[in-house]
Amino acid sequence: MTVSRAPSLAALLVFATGGAWAGGTGALRADAAWIRVLPGDLPAAAYLTLRNAGDEEVALTGARSASYRRIMLHRSAGVGGMEGMVPVARLPVPAHGAVRLAPGGYHLMLMDAVRPIAPGRKVTLTLIFDGGREKLDVAFLARPANATGP
Amino acid sequence: MLTEMPPDWRSCLARRTRRLILPALAALLCACTGGSSPSWRLTDVRGHLPDLRFHLTDGNGQAVSGETYRGRLAMLYFGYTHCPDVCPLTLSHLHLVMEKLGPLASNVRILFVSVDPARDTPAVMHEYAAAFDPRVVGLTGGESEIAAVAKRYRVAFTRGPTLAGGGYEVNHSSGIYIFDARGRARLLGTPGDSVDDIVHDLRILIAMEKDS
Question: What ipTM does this complex have?
């Protein structure tokens, strides 16, 4: 994958080979970013792989978007056969490491879409790291409800 | 207490469960049946869970019961439409199961029962079910009807606190209950079971139906 850099922009969206949408600035890179879109105004979930090429750990602490009014970082957790979600305050991306947000685990819960999102569209989320110390604009590919990946 | 687990913990858990529990169960079954029992990959619950029976409302607003779905295998799963991660993951896996079954899928229905009837109206359930697979039937009902079917299959669900914006989450049991065409409970799966394992067992059940 190639990552272009434009000094005038905080973030530049790039298209990754292999069909996944991704974005990258500095040491942080996003791959395989997708959203499972559900019918009507139901909440959706966003997934991606975050890679940190830097020497310091960074932590995903939230996200915002012009397309959704509220976004929460969650983890699905099963305990004793019960399924539920727990809020996640910070998700560390280790130095020279990666973290995966994937179905059944970490995800960004997207609520109150400003307008319906059709599968096939791209939706930009601004990922916020360490409470705003770093930001990354990532284009997520909207996929249908029954998709299993990007 | 929740502990940190990798995103693929569910399949790890399923593998571990299979490794520890299923050999014991298999040994027990062989002892009882002289080794003639099929080699199930899911948990054999025959005789341990009640027949498919409920009174609910389908996505068209029609009153339906367990008898409505006799004549085909049924996969029963409980969840709710405002669940953005695990319920869609499970239903998309069950969609893959149906795709892999090919023409045999006409012998199978997926019954998705809401544990959040306050928000999950028949119309919402209809649209939600159709987004996954044409063979998913979305079922909802009154609170007492939902409570009755949940109790019958020992499914627990609890409404979480109201969140900013007025929404809430519902924690719920995650079993996939599989019934034969006569409505008898046969197998129990989990969202961590692989598509291939579910397909494997459904093929056996479908073949058994044709032989009987």
Answer: 0.80
